[in-house]
Design a protein that fits this description.
The protein is about 0% helix and about 50% strand. By secondary structure, the chain is mainly β. The strands form 2 sheets. Strands 2, 4, 5, 6, 9, 10 and 11 form a 7-stranded mixed sheet that branches. A 4-stranded antiparallel sheet has the order 1-3-8-7, with no helix packed on it. It is globular and about 40 Å long.
Length: about 120
C-alpha cells in the first residue's frame, strides 16, 4: 500500500495550489481518506487535521481553519484524492500529507508529504 503526494510549491499569499495524492496497492473505494499538514517546527504528533472524505464518498468534512478556502475531492477511477487550496496565507506553510484508512481499520497508511510554502 502506497500513497504519493504531489503539487506542493512556493507561492505568494492569495494564490492557489492543487495537491494530489495517488494511491496504489489498496482497494481505493474501501478507504476513508484524509489530508493533514505539519507546520514548521511542529512534531508528527502535532499534525493538523484538515479534511476527510469517507469510503462511501459522502460530502467532505473540513477543519474550521481551512473551511471555505480548501476543497477536498476524490476520484475513485483515478485512485487519486485532491486538495484544492485557494487564498493561501503564510500560515498555510507546512508539509501536507494524505492518509488512507480502510473502513474496517485493517490499514492506516501515510504518504511522504509535499511541501507548501506561502511567502511574498
Amino acid at each position: 500500500v502506497q500513497l504519493a503526494e504531489s503539487g506542493g510549491d512556493l507561492v505568494q499569499p492569495g494564490e492557489s495550489l492543487r495537491l494530489s495524492c495517488a494511491a496504489s496497492g489498496l482497494t481505493f473505494n474501501e478507504a476513508n481518506l484524509y489530508w493533514y499538514r505539519q507546520a514548521p517546527e511542529k512534531s508528527e504528533k502535532e499534525r493538523e487535521f484538515l479534511a476527510t472524505i469517507s469510503h462511501v464518498n459522502g460530502p467532505a468534512v473540513y477543519a474550521n481553519s481551512i473551511k471555505g478556502r480548501f476543497t477536498m475531492s476524490r476520484d475513485n477511477a483515478k485512485r487519486t484524492v485532491f486538495l484544492q487550496m485557494n487564498s493561501l496565507k503564510a500560515e498555510d506553510t507546512a508539509v501536507y500529507y494524505c492518509n488512507a484508512r480502510k473502513w474496517d481499520g485493517s490499514y492506516d497508511v501515510w504518504g511522504q508529504g509535499t511541501q507548501v510554502t506561502v511567502s511574498s
